[in-house]
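re the bet — no i am not wrong, look at it urself. input seq straight from the record:
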Amino acid sequence: MKKSILSFIVFLMFLGFAKSQSIGLMLGYGSKIEQIGIGANAEFGLTDKLKIAPSFLYYFTEDHDFVKTNLWELNGNVNYYFIDENDLGLYGLGGLNYTHISAKADYMGYSHSESSGKIGLNLGAGLNYNITERLSPYAELKFVISDYDQLVAMIGMKYKL
């Protein structure tokens, strides 16, 4: 886990030399777990149409009686802009997804925990609309293909650096 986060941070530092950059915050909803989440993302331009887009999304899972769960996902996508003119951007996305779930049960002095992580693929599309030179609200819809298949809808705001 620590190695994954460290690798992700180093990856982001190397992308600091990219053409165009933005960072953002988002709200997401996972169809299979039926929960909302919050997260952060970034976008680093390789060309005018091709951008690398890492993101992290933490879901607010419900605790049930004596069981507590956590679920989060880490994504590394490539966005290809089909339309990027005036104030509108329309892109397709594809990439890798890592979903991690953990559960801990505490009952009458007995404690047990389990965790699992699965790698999958992301396929989807998104839409940006520049409301100022630096701010762009966006919406994104992706399907995660893995042992944790689900449709994820996200809305958020990107800030161009």
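see?? The chain has a mean pLDDT of 90. told u. also The two ends are 29 Å apart (CA to CA). so pay up
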